[in-house]
Amino acid sequence: MHFVLALSAVILLVACTTEEAPSAETESQEISESDLSVGGQPSDGDIAALAAAGYRTVVNLRSFEEGDLDAERASVRQAGMTYVAIPFRSAKLLQDAHFDLGRQWLRDDTARPLYMHCASGNRVGALYIAFRVLDEGADFDQAVAEARSMGLRSDELVVRAKDYVSRHQR
Q: Does some domain include residue 153?
């Protein structure tokens, strides 16, 4: 599947908070296919735009310590979409269960169109790598390049994704 870096996709996330100080490489970027978008923290306006564009599901990877997940859940549900939380704050806390749940939602055609986010796209990248390699047959290095284009910065997350992929590849 060919993924396109979409700076002017369905939603341009201009009000993105980041896990680190913003830079040209980490400001809101989004990778999008017709029914899957991943990126940084959406605002209430972005959530409304997702709903207006026909999105069905928002998957949030941010942890409870990072913000008001209840407010985002309420906003997503009020907009008529399904809200899913798979919270983890760092590579050290990333477990197989996070990969498993993320892949489950990314594979679910009935959940699409789907938007998956963390604060900046960094953590999304790790789950995206596993999905692309294990579920779509992408080359690992290509999946990493795609994940980096959407905001993945952490080499430790790449190592965790590689370990997960190597233990789950058939």
A: yes
pLDDT tens column, 49-64: 999 999 999 999 999 9
Cβ(169)–Cβ(129) under 8 Å?
no
Whether 2 is covered by a domain: the verdict is no
pLDDT value of residue 92: 96
H helical segments located in 27-169: 44-52, 69-78, 96-107, 122-130, 136, 140-149, 155-168
Task: Give a yes or no: residue 106 inside a domain.
Answer: yes
Q: What is the count of structural domains for the chain? A: 1
State the pTM of this model.
0.81
Residue 166 has, within 13 A of its CA and on its CB side, a CA count of: 6
- For residues 59 and 151, what is the distance between their CA atoms, to the nearest angstrom? 16
Q: How far apart are CA 42 and CA 21, in angstroms?
A: 17
